[in-house]
Design a protein that fits this description.
extended; N-terminal domain of TfIIb; 37% helix; 187 residues; three-stranded antiparallel β-sheet
Length: 187
Amino acid sequence: MYDATPEKMPKARLGRRAFLKLAAVGAGVGATASLVASNKVRAATSEEVKDPYPGSKKVKTICSICSAGCGMVAEVHNGVWVRQDVAQDHPISEGSHCCKGADQIDLVKSKMRLKYPLKKENGEWKRISWQQAIDEISQKMLKLREESGPDMAMFLGSAKFNLQQSFYFRKFAAMWGTNNIDHVARI
């Protein structure tokens, strides 16, 4: 028989990780409650619910994650991509997306996305021009090919390549002087 007296009961322990999770939940609940209690949050009007981006336009486009060519409808408001939906009438995707295509908008709007070349100098990342990046990379590649031969490089294709891009990519590898070409999905 189990003895439920306070002296015999096991002591409850709360680990550091569990404490931090509970503290974060508590802070979130407190912050939400303070917003609801104040005038900072209001109910959306029925018009705002129907059309949160008045004046936006819907643009039919193609997902750029891979070369399948699935259709999507991008909603653009003041030149900014704000929402996306599947293209219901698209012959390839037939009104659906894969998990990567459904997240396409977040890839485009990510703060981590690089928009220009960077070079690490003295432990710090420094912005450089596109011309400088192309010049430096091509000089290093040519030097490596001269020292070790054309088979020193391996060219890996991409799932984003369409047929024409794959053709040019293969021609570039042949121009470089190697047959070392493969698709990145096999790695």
